[in-house]
Amino acid sequence: MYGTAGLGALFLPLIILLIISLCCTSAFVELAVEKGHSGKTTTIWLLGIFGSVLAAGLYVAALPDRAGVPSSPSPKTVDDELPSL
C-alpha cells in the first residue's frame, strides 16, 4: 500500500542524525585531547555512540584542564610566604 517511499522517509533522517552524532562525538574527543585527557577517548566514544551526545559533552566539560596549566611558583621558605609584621 505504501510502497518503499515510506522507508526512505524513515531511514534518511535517522542516517543524518547518526552522522551528526558521530561528528559531534568526534569534536568532543578532540576537545578532551586538547584538555590533556588522551586516555579518556574510548569512554567518550562509547558515551557518544551508545549513550547520548549530550552526556558525552557534559563529560568533556567536566574534565579538568591538564594541558597548558602553569604550575604556581612555590615559596622557598616560610618567611617568603608570610607577610612582614
Describe the 3D structure.
This protein has helices at residues 5-34, 41-50, 53-62, 78-81. By secondary structure, it is mostly helical. It has a domain at 15-28 and 39-51. Helix 1 runs antiparallel to helix 2 (41-50), helix 1 runs parallel beside helix 3 (53-62) and helix 2 runs antiparallel to helix 3. The protein starts with a helix and ends with a helix. The mean pLDDT is 83.
List the topology elements.
Blueprint: H1 5-34, H2 41-50, H3 53-62, H4 78-81
Sequence of secondary-structure elements = HHHH
Number of strands: 0
The assigned structural class equals: mainly alpha
Low-confidence stretches: none
What percentage of the residues does DSSP assign to strands (E)? under 5%
Average pLDDT rating: 83
Form type: rod-shaped
Oligomer: single chain
Question: What proportion of the residues is helical, as a percent range?
Answer: 55-70%
Discrete helix count: 4
Q: State the major sheet.
A: none
In short:
The chain is an all-alpha fold. It has a domain at 15-28 and 39-51. The protein is 64% helix and 0% strand.
Can you give keywords for this protein?
single chain, 85 residues, mainly alpha, 4 helices, 64% helix
